[in-house]
Design goal:
216 residues; mainly alpha; hpI Integrase, Chain A; two-stranded antiparallel sheet; 10 helices; 2 strands
């Protein structure tokens, strides 16, 4: 006789499968890019939000990652009250609570750019009662592994290689650095415990090295 599994067991197996798939994708990225997620080009970001990501929720979820430089786990665990006021409008600052951050160091408040406001307004009709990005069947928030798979599929549709959820964070922080924003200010945004940890995220291009040498 075939073995019948309970719905909770089936969901557990699906989660394990998702974790294995995400792990394999992560290993491929590490091999191909020496452990660092790809820095996204401007045109890749545009294509990703216009073509790769197919739902308002997904565009808002990863829009938070890109326009605040936060970790995927921080975006996934956002509460509705962290983003929207009592009148339903997007708050001028998005709150990343201390308890949901890596190392639980401190709560961060990040100003919300107009582009992100637009994404959050569009997503607003789908917001759950507690979490900004509810999980399956409305239980808890979306799992970071599930978000990683959604993004991986979007990258595959656009044939963007070497990228992962960490690409948004690396891209955002590198852009700030290239714009001349002091590292201490970037650290306040990123939530890194030390400047040395932050510097590992920042990418230096060959052109920047050549320009630096030309000034000697």
């Amino acid at each position: 006789m075939p073995v019948l599994l309970k719905s909770t067991q089936v969901e557990g197996l699906r989660l394990i499968h998702r974790k294995i798939k995400v792990s394999r994708c992560s290993e491929e990225m590490k091999v191909n890019r020496h452990g660092q997620a790809k820095i996204l080009l401007a045109e890749e970001i545009t294509r990703l939000f216009e073509e790769g990501l197919t739902t308002d929720r997904d565009r808002a979820l990863f829009g938070v990652c890109f326009f605040t430089g936060c970790r995927i786990s921080e975006s996934c665990s956002l509460l509705t009250d962290d983003v929207y006021g009592t009148n339903g409008s997007v708050r001028p600052k998005l709150t990343l609570r201390k308890g949901n951050t890596k190392g639980k160091l401190k709560t961060r408040s990040i100003p919300v750019r107009p582009e992100l406001i637009a994404l959050l307004k569009t997503h607003h009709s789908e917001v759950g009662k507690r979490y900004l990005f509810p999980g399956r069947w409305g239980r808890g928030h979306i799992h970071p592994d599930s978000a990683a798979l959604i993004l991986r599929e979007a990258f595959e549709r656009l044939t963007i290689e070497g990228a992962s959820t960490h690409s948004f964070r690396r891209t955002a922080l590198t852009r700030l650095s290239n714009a001349g924003v002091p590292l201490r200010v970037i650290q306040e945004i990123s939530g890194h415990e030390t400047l040395s940890a932050l510097q590992k995220y920042l990418e230096v291009t060959e052109q920047q090295v050549e320009e630096a040498i030309s000034r000697l």
